[in-house]
Amino acid sequence: MSYDVLGCAINVHREVGPGLLESVYQKCLIHELKSKGFKVMQQVKAPLFYKDLRLEVELKADIIVNESVIIELKTVDCLLPVHEAQILTYMRLLKIPQGLLMNFYSDNLSKNKIPLVNEYFKALPE
């Protein structure tokens, strides 16, 4: 499924090009994903607990597709380790097995993405 999701992102990037705000790519990608029949949630709050304390913090995953892939969108000069740590944390907190970190501020989106999996990843049905 992440292959199909990436295809949707590449379509968006090809159509609108680099240099826009993250929110623009998010709206376009959500439209593209929904048009392909994916179930899409956006700006999903990730609960954070410290021991027995539930913290009211604003941690939001950009896009979740079919409850199994988190997409974290960036429009930065280059992806940094902190961006990867961010999506891995969202994946853990939300118990989502796959993630795609994508930098739309590039000429080639397929070379500026990082696919991730965690301990929740199993053989997912396609």
Concise structural overview:
This is GxxExxY protein. With 126 residues, the protein is of the alpha+beta class.
Describe this structure as you would to a colleague.
- Pfam families: PDDEXK_3 (PF13366).
- It comes from Cecembia rubra.
- This protein is an alpha+beta fold and 126 residues long.
- It has a single domain, classed as Lambda Exonuclease, Chain A (Alpha-Beta Complex).
- The protein is built from three helices and seven strands.
- It has helices at 2-16, 22-35, 81-94; strands at residues 40-45, 48-50, 53-55, 60-65, 69-74, 98-103, 113-117.
- A five-stranded mixed beta sheet has the order 1-4-5-6-7, sandwiched between helices.
- A hairpin with a 3-residue loop joins strand 4 and strand 5 (69-74).
- Helix 1 (2-16) packs across helix 2 (22-35).
- It is globular, with a radius of gyration of 14 Å.
- The mean pLDDT is 91.
* Total of DSSP H or I helical runs spanning 4+ residues: 3
> Structural class, from secondary structure content?
alpha+beta
Number of strands: 7
Query: What string, H for helix and E for strand, traces the elements in order?
Result: HHEEEEEHEE
The low-pLDDT segments are none
**What is CATH's topology name?**
Lambda Exonuclease, Chain A
Write down the CATH class: Alpha Beta
What is the total number of structural domains? 1
Q: What is the beta-strand fraction?
A: 25-35%
Strand order of the largest sheet: 1-4-5-6-7
Percentage of residues in helical conformation: 25-40%
Largest sheet: 5 strands, mixed
Shape: globular
Q: What value does the average pLDDT take? A: 91
CATH architecture annotation name: Alpha-Beta Complex
Work out the radius of gyration.
Answer: 14 Å
- What is the CA-CA span between the terminal residues? 6 Å
